[in-house]
Amino acid sequence: MSEVLEKQISYSSGNVAVPTTDETTLLQSGAVQVPVHTCIVHVRAWGQMTSGVNATGITARLRRGPDGGSSVVGEANVTTLAAAAGGNEQVFIEAVERRENVSSVAYELSVQQAAATGDGTFLQGLIEVEILTG
Amino acid sequence: MAKLLAKAVTGQSTDIALTGAAETVVIASQRVQVRVATCLVHIRAWGQWTPGTGTTGLTARLYRWGTGEGGPLGEVNQIPRAAGSGSTETVMLEAVELRRSVESVQYVLSVEQVGASGAGSFIQGALEVEVLSG
Questions:
Q1: Closest C-alpha to B4, from A20, A3, A111
Q2: Pick from A71-80, B50-59, B76-85, B99-108: least confident
Q3: Centroid of chain to Cα A35
């Protein structure tokens, strides 16, 4: 039976600038202990941001934390803005991966504006990490 | 108070063609064991998709395993596209149901383009199944 072994949620409401088209790390989960040899990790991130001038879309990425080599988990797709540039947007992304032989895991959420000539602002968000029996 | 008894999360990052306006199963969950006589099941799905030509919206459905078994859970509603042609769109859907006298549960997510004359693509997603004490 699949069970949740560990879970961690990190929330931030401090505004963070998202410079033009730079990929910007916004949220970090911190280390989550893995008490088994092999596990399934479920990562989910949600946030709200204000897009910058001329932005047409947002790419959200989930990356393994620094000890995991910063590799992208899942896909990195540009999502078209729901509102005109300068409006508030939602960011939502999930990923699932199997990890083996690790004592802990950590993940990060980054966002990158498409075609923006002005800075965006990340307003609030959270990142969840669940460790499940694999 | 409801307790989380079991949970499974299934990720999907292989592109799946959405043919015209046909309903297509895009993620199937793992089978989750149920060790109590009555339980609540919480199903949550998220994904990203690229619309085909002429698509005006998307209808997502959650089913017990197999689209022919018991009909869709919750409501079946069309959601208009958020952006213009060539965009990447987000889909989210949740449902909760009471299950009795079952040894396990399993669910699928299907999507159906509205008004499409061309093929779209489901590009990544996740399907969560949580079994809670009922």
A1: A3
A2: B76-85
A3: 23
Residue-wise pLDDT for A25-54, tens only, equals 999 999 999 999 999 999 999 999 999 999
Interface of A with B in 104-123 (CB under 8 A): none
Percentage of residues in chain A with pLDDT exceeding 70? 98
Q: Which residue has the tokens 């079952």?
A: B102
Question: Residue A33 in contact with residue A52, Cβ under 8 Å?
Answer: no
**Predicted TM-score (pTM) of this structure:** 0.88
CB B29 within 8 A of CB B110: no
Q: How many CB atoms lie within 10 A of CB A89?
A: 23
Give me the sheet containing B23-28, strands edge to edge: B23-28, B107-114, B57-64, B78-80
Q: Which residue has the tokens 């959405």?
A: B18
CB–CB contact A75 B13 (8 Å): yes
Chain B contacts in chain A segment 16-45 (CB below 8 A): 40, 42, 44
Distances (CA, A) of A59 to A44, A56, A68, A91, B61: 15, 10, 21, 9, 26
